[in-house]
Design a protein that fits this description.
42% helix; 8 helices; 18% strand; alpha+beta; five-stranded antiparallel beta sheet; three-stranded antiparallel beta sheet; single chain; Aminoglycoside 3'-phosphotransferase, Chain: A, domain 2
Length: 248
C-alpha cells in the first residue's frame, strides 16, 4: 500500500498524497467546485480529475518538478521560465470564467484592513509597512479582467526540462488582473521576471507587478501567521517587503 504524505494542512483545507494521487479536503465545497470548473476551462496543462465527492477532490499528479520554491533560487532554466510565461499568456488570453472575481474596491479594502493589523500588532517596523503600502498604490487602478489563476505560486507550476507539464491548485481562479498572476509567480524571485516576460510577450507593466509584490505580501502575512506558516522565513514575504526599502 502507498504511504500517505501530508502535503499541506491547516484549518481551512488539507492535501494528502497517496502514490500518484492527491486528495484535497476543503471545509468550503465552493473551492473545489471552482477548481474543477477552472481546470476544465483553462487552455494550459492541468491535473487530471479522478473524482469529486465533496468535501474531497481527487486529482492525478502531474509529471515534472515544480518551477521552484519560495526562499530558494529556482533551478529551472530561462527557457522553462519563458515557457511558463507563454502558458500564462494563453490563460490570460482565454475567455474569463463566468463567476465574479475580486474587484478594485475589494482589494483596496483588504489592503487597508491588513496594513492596520500589521501596524497594530507590530510584526514589522512601521516604516516597512508604510513604504510598501505606498508602493502597492500602483496596483490599485482599473484593470481589464482576464482569466487569472489567482494563486500562481512558483510551487504550482510544474516543468519537465523546458516544457510546462502542469499547473495545479485552481481554487482561486476568477476574472482578475493579469499583473497579479505575474507578480505572484515571481514573488521572491524577481530576478526571473525578465525570463518570464520573454515568453509572456507585450503588455506587462513592471511597475504594477512590483506594486503587487508589495500588496500581496502585505495582505497575505496575517493569514500565514494565523495558519502556522512563517512569512519571515528567508526569501519569503517579509524579506520581499524589506527588499523594497532598499530601492530608490
Amino acid at each position: 500500500m502507498d504511504q500517505v504524505e501530508v502535503v499541506v494542512a491547516h484549518s481551512q483545507r488539507a492535501t494528502l498524497r497517496v502514490g500518484d494521487r492527491f486528495l484535497k479536503v476543503d471545509g468550503d465545497p465552493a473551492h473545489a467546485g471552482v477548481e474543477v470548473r477552472a481546470m476544465t476551462m483553462a487552455p494550459v496543462p492541468t491535473p487530471a480529475i479522478l473524482w469529486h465527492e465533496p468535501p474531497v477532490l481527487a486529482i492525478a499528479a502531474v509529471p515534472g518538478t515544480a518551477l521552484g520554491v519560495l526562499g530558494r533560487p529556482s533551478p529551472a532554466s530561462a527557457a522553462a521560465w519563458a515557457a511558463t510565461g507563454a502558458a500564462v499568456r494563453r490563460l490570460h488570453d482565454a475567455p474569463p470564467p463566468p463567476w465574479r472575481g475580486r474587484g478594485l474596491d475589494d482589494v483596496a479594502a483588504e489592503l487597508d484592513r491588513e496594513c492596520a493589523w500589521l501596524l497594530d500588532n507590530a510584526v514589522l517596523p512601521a516604516e516597512v509597512i508604510r513604504r510598501n503600502r505606498e508602493i502597492a498604490e500602483a496596483a490599485l487602478r482599473p484593470w481589464r479582467s482576464v482569466f487569472v489563476h489567482g494563486d500562481l505560486q512558483i510551487t504550482h507550476v510544474f516543468v519537465d526540462g523546458d516544457e510546462v507539464t502542469g499547473i495545479i491548485d485552481w481554487s482561486e481562479a476568477a476574472p482578475g488582473d493579469a499583473m497579479f498572476d505575474l507578480a505572484t509567480l515571481t514573488l521572491g524571485h524577481e530576478e526571473r521576471l525578465d525570463d518570464l516576460l520573454a515568453g509572456y510577450g507585450p503588455g506587462a507593466d513592471r511597475d504594477v507587478i512590483r506594486a503587487w509584490w508589495s500588496l500581496r505580501s502585505l495582505v497575505a502575512s496575517r493569514w500565514l501567521i494565523e495558519h502556522g506558516f512563517d512569512p519571515d522565513a528567508p526569501g519569503c514575504e517579509f524579506d520581499v517587503l524589506r527588499a523594497r526599502m532598499r530601492e530608490p
